[in-house]
Amino acid sequence: MARLLLIEDDPAIRNTLLRALRERGHAVAAAGAAMEGLQTALAERPDLIVLDLGLPDLDGRELLRMLRAVSRVPVIVATARDEETEMVRLLDAGADDYVVKPFTAAQLDARIRAVLRRGADTETTADLTIGGLRIDAAARTVTLDGAEVELSPREFDLLHHLAQRAGQVVTKRELLSEVWQVPYGGADKTVDVHLSWLRRKLGETAQEPRYLHTVRGVGVRLSEPA
């Protein structure tokens, strides 16, 4: 059983989802506005939040940023927009997954279970060390030569995925599918952007790599410095 927080302003949708998710064995709290949702999230510490973007007091994207500033709780965004660029923007902002309206309770429940499984897999993964780079999966922290490296949630997920395949070339298709949970396509530029940010924080460049090596036309490889 998961402890969920549903932030949805429409009473009819909120009540329908509350009933359906509780019938599926979840313990569900609900909020009808952004600030109420933030307060409930901090007080209740749910396992996962389902966040509607169209809230009366604050845009859901802003609430997502506020949540990410204080918590790593998984967030599934509910949105009426299905454009790929919008989905990538939400995932880059810290969402773990999304559902496009209209959706059924069964679809939402499947997404919830998938996100929680991914979180459980990360928590049980052993620490990873590649050269002077140490990744603590449980604490979601990274140190380089003993100094902490501050990463966004998406940058951490990207680095962690590459570290799990250290020495192997990982394609953009795999990174988009496994890290961003989106299909391969024009949005693959987001991989390049995040790799650039990650390199800067690791003190390297694409021209002078230490850990992150681009294999042109194939993907990227994380390996110990020579």
Strand order of the largest sheet: 2-1-3-4-5
Shape: elongated
Q: How many H/I helices?
A: 8
Strand content: 15-25%
For the largest beta-sheet, the strand count, sense and barrel status come to: 5 strands, parallel
Distance between the termini: 47 Å
β-strand number: 12
Main structural class: alpha/beta
Whole-angstrom Rg: 19 Å
Determine the mean pLDDT: 87
Name the poorly predicted regions.
Answer: none
Which H/E pattern describes the elements? EHEHEHEHEHEEEEHEHHEE
Fraction of helical residues? 40-55%
Explain what the structure shows:
The protein has 226 residues and is α/β, with parallel strands linked by helices. It contains eight helices and twelve strands.
Please sum up the structure shown:
With 226 residues, this protein is of the alpha/beta class. 43% of the residues lie in helices and 22% in strands. The protein has 8 helices and 12 strands.
